[in-house]
Design brief:
Blueprint: H1 13-34, H2 38-53, H3 60-66, H4 71-82, H5 86-102, H6 109-115, H7 121-132, H8 136-142
Length: 144
Amino acid sequence: MNNNPQSTSSDNEVPARKAILSQNWQAIQHKTAMDKTRQGSLIQAFIGLLEENFRAQHSPVFYAESLNITKSYLRKTCNLVVGVSTAECISIRLSLEACKLLEDPTFTIAEIGHQLGFDNPNYFYRFFKKRLGMTAKAHRNGLT
C-alpha cells in the first residue's frame, strides 16, 4: 500500500486519489480476511469496530481499549497483519468517507466535517488537505 494519494498529478486527480484510497481500504480488508491467525482475528475485530465507530472515534486508544489490549499491541499487530498502523487505518477510512460525502453537494464541507466527528471545521479542513494533498473544496470542484 505504497500508493500515496498525494502523489497523483493529472486531469483525473480527484478520481485517482479516491481510487487509491479505495484500493488501500480494500487491501486492508482483504489482508485481514485472509489472515486466520490470532492476530488476524484481532485486526478483524478492530476493522469491525472501526466500521461502526469511525465517524465518532478517531483515536487508536478507543479501539485498543474496546478490544482490551494496549494501543501499542494494536499498532504492532495492525502493522504485522495489514502493513500499516492503526492510526493510518483510521485515516484511510475517514478519508474515503470524506471523499464519498463530498460527492453530495447538499452538504457543506463544514457539515461533512461534523458528520465525520470533527468538532471544528478547521480540523477537518487540515485533515483533508494533509491526507489528500488538496483542499476539500478543490476536491469537490474536481468532481464536476
